[in-house]
Amino acid sequence: MFKKLNLLIRNHTIMFNSLRTLLLFLTFAVVLFLGSCKSSKIDTTQQGSDYKYKVGHPELRINTFGFVDQEQGPTLEITADIVEGSLVYSQQNDSLTANIAVDIQIVDQENGENIIESQRITKSVTSSNENITSSRETITINYSQQVSPSKYDISVTVTDLNSKRKLTQTSETFIPETEEGEFTISNIQMYGKEDNSGWAPITGYDVQSSVDSLRFVFQVISPQTERRLTIDSRLVEFKSDTGLPRSMTRNNYSSSSIEYKGIDYDRQTEIQSTRRVLSDYSSVFVEYKFANQNRGNYRFEVNTKKEGDEEEQFNGRAFGIKSPNFPAVENIHELARPLAYLMDSNQYEDLLKISDKDSLKQAIDRFWLKNIGNKQKTRSVIELYYTRVEQANKMFSNFKEGWKTDRGLIYVMFGNPFYTRDRLRSLTWYYSYNLEDPNYRFRFEQPQLNNKFFPFDHYLLQRHSYYHSRRYIQRDLWLSGRILQRRI
Q1: pLDDT, tens digit (0-9, with 9 covering 90-100), for 453-469
Q2: Which domain holds residue 21?
Q3: CA-closest candidate to residue 76, choices 170, 151, 158, 179
Q4: Which of 229, 241, 299, 452 is least buried, going by the fewest C-beta atoms within 10 A?
């Protein structure tokens, strides 16, 4: 008996020591990971504000910029863009009118989180054109506030006064107090210009490919000094997934594939680099201009170093080039590409080979009408399909358009799930009240933790062969028009 007891104790001791060794190894690995992350350029790279979207709510994007004005001192500049077509309009005589209230709140993080400013701005939008209810044009609100050097949280809430619905966006910016002989770099402002229009702030990560020029502006914040400052800047492109998702019935992605990773920050291509040297300067704005790039994911980088210093300061602005009218789908090529979910591969390849716009439009019209038959029903099905494509762009976009993501694929085909379950690195959508029915259950896994070092909601569908019949049935619902009566 004692031999058995000693053996049991020895086995537990071995197990404990093994667990302790494993724990020490994991702790060491985490420390190494965090240490490498702290020095990562992603840590000091801005993404722009996230694209929040709720059906029936105002669409809002914000941009904040902290800088030192030569006359007024430290200043916060806030830009809010509200999409006209996201508002609710009331009929007044021969015009449509929307009314909004924009509440701006500025909180000082470093001084007891005091609210230093709270401002409400109201605005009315009136138009005789009924197309304003679907317009992608924006109402722009500009606001500036003098502040002291500190770190600030900015909250902007837009309220549709007709529907009483509201949406809030938050941002963070920092205006440092720079000592004599030192310098700091402000956050980077990004602007875009299309055709002959003026420069407009780009408030988020996504940039329409119809924008033909890009401009980056930042401020070197420094008291007067004669020590020369070297500014090295460059534009880089990252290897990333921008293609269509794999069929829901095929094998899952391998962990080494770019579709699994999303973006590979270690695989980059330098587009352009520039060096500037400043001498005998105080606080000064610096700008760079580039032609717009091909669809993909990029970062504008700035490394600054003062003469005699060993350490550099880094700042960056990340962005992704999307489709020309993103998040809307308007031109004929944008309307053609999402049909990949309803066509077989040969049909789809033949469709994309058509270069003439008129011929492509006729081919798309024939596809829908040949399958559905009734013109009125066809128009309703087309409207539903592309509404889901646009909504997927607003809800799921990351390093590529939202409709191309795995969640976008399921959302376009099946719509909103009846029920969702969100757990660490796992998300499940249910399309049946029977939660155990595998044919109406889709599970997504997150290969990368969503944090500032990989700032994307990247979920991959766990594919199965038994989805084959479910996919076939769903395509038939769309192509017969029965999707209007049965949304899943």
Answers
A1: 788 999 999 999 889 99
A2: 2-39
A3: 151
A4: 452
